[in-house]
Each structure stands twice: as C-alpha cells, then as structure tokens.
Amino acid sequence: MKLKTLAQLLTLALLWGIAFLFIKVAVREIPPVTLIMTRVGLAAVILYLILRAQGRNLPRPGRIWLHFAVVGLLYNALPYSLVAWSQQHIDSALAAMFIGATPLITLVLAHFFTADDHFTPAKAGGVAFGFAGLAVLLGPALADGLHVTSFGLLASLTAAISYGAAIVYAKRTLHGLPPLVSPTAQLGLAALFLLPVSLLVEQPYRLPLPSVTALGALLLLTVFSTALVFYIYYRAMETTSATTLSLATYLIPIVATAAGVLLLHEQLAWNVYLGSGLIFGGIFASNGLFTVSRWQRLLPGLRAAIIGRAVGSQKQSTQKEAARIV
Hints:
The chain is an all-alpha fold. The chain contains 13 helices and no strands. The protein has helices spanning 3-26, 32-53, 63-86, 92-99, 102-113, 121-143, 148-173, 181-202, 212-236, 242-245, 248-263, 270-286, 292-325.
C-alpha cells in the first residue's frame, strides 16, 4: 500500500469517525432532523460549487433522479437522522459500533438482492459472528424492557440496515457517473426530504438560538465530515480501488470510540467491548482474513521482509566491524 493511499484511508476514517463526536455535541441543542437537514443541505451546496468549478453539472431530469432519491433517502436522510436521534439517548461510541456492522448487513442484503455476491462459508461464518456481536450489544438493554435507551440502540441498528440497503441499491443503479455527481444529488434530495419534517415536527424557528459550541460542531460536521470527506473519497477513487478504500469503514468505530471516551468521557460497559470484538471478528472472517490461503499469500512477503531486514542488519554490522578494524 502506498503512503498516499494510507494517508487517504486514515483521513477518511478520522473524518467519518469524528462525525459521531460532532453530532453528540450539536444534538444537545439542535433537534436531530433539523441538525441533519442543515448538514446535508449545506454540504450539497458546497459539493455543487466544487462540481461547477470542475466544469461539471448535475444530470438533466430523468430516471436517474429516482435512483438519486432512493439512495439519498436510504443513505443520507434516514440513517443520518436515526443516528442523530439515537445519540440523544446513547453514547456516541455505542452508536458507532452499530454503524460498524454495516459491512455485515450489506453482505446479507447482497446475498438476497444481487446476482454475483452470494454467501461463501467464510462470509456465512463472519455474518454469524457479527450478528452475535449485535446481540451482545442489544441484549442487556432489551433484557430490562423497552425504554428510551433500547429505542436508541434500535435506531442505530436500523440506520446500519438502511446504509446496507442503500449500498446494495446504489451498486445496481448508480455506476459510471462522474465523481461528486451522485453525492451532490443525494445530499440535496435528502435535505428536501427532511425540510418539511423539520419545520412541521421540530419547529426549530420556535427554539432559542443554539450556542457557539453547538453551531461550531454543526459547521465542522458539515464541512469536514460531510462535504470534505465525500470530496476526498471520490478523489481517492481515481487512483485507488473501492475495495481498498472500504478499509476505512473498519476504522470508523475505533476513531469514534476513542473520541467518545477521551473527549466526551464516555464510559462503556463490558458488553460494548465484547460485542464490538465479535463484530470486528465477523468482518475480518467474512473478508477471508482467517483463511489458510490468505496467510499463505501473506507469509512469503512477510518472511522475505524479515529475512531482508536481517541480512541488511548483518551487512551493516559487518561494515561497522570492518571500519573499526581499519
């Protein structure tokens, strides 16, 4: 992996992961739907300006806009709002753990709704591990009966399912488009979906003006964790495969957990660590990390690197010894 690719992966993981922190801070004063409507609306404007500066434009009205609408609803409006609402009742790190299960949920949906992405033994085993992890995350809260915390957990799980459905749908309908066209259209339509809900249900115009802290978190969420992250992602796709870039999604819960614990002083129960471990294990297993063939491919390169380093060190020591003798 090139250094530039690694830097892009880490940047994407940081920007996506820190979004949970921004949401947690902003949603204390800004209602969740209003928060997300502002986030996606302003991000759509930023991306559109970038698109025009690149000499591109959005497609003309047609069937493609129906696909934009579906993905905008399933990938932006619905899950973003659910995550924001859930973080009124659960820790940001816990919400991120559920979103981290999105790759496993996507595998299940792809098995039933695509023609070329079915279960293998490794994928089936990984999904079983992952869903066991979700059960561990949900179990203690549901055992105490349905309450606000339980609904917060279920909202995050529903958001992960929505993400998975959007990914499968977009794979079938949105391909071959110029960079930034799809996210610009999706975010704009998501804002339109959320506008009437915000005005009629939350009525933000009746609320006091949020503090500088809340507005600052919203601004950072919009600029860095939405507009900039989409820009970097699609720029990176010009030189890096989507499979490689998807590795960033595995780091998102780690970044979100670190931010929640270190900056928000969140305290996580034992089941969060156990459940997240099972989810990560399921993701790694479903991607074949634990298979013999994968290690057979990795070991020769690792062995060569170790031997090469040992030979280099031995050669350097010999040269130093010879220099001392001279």
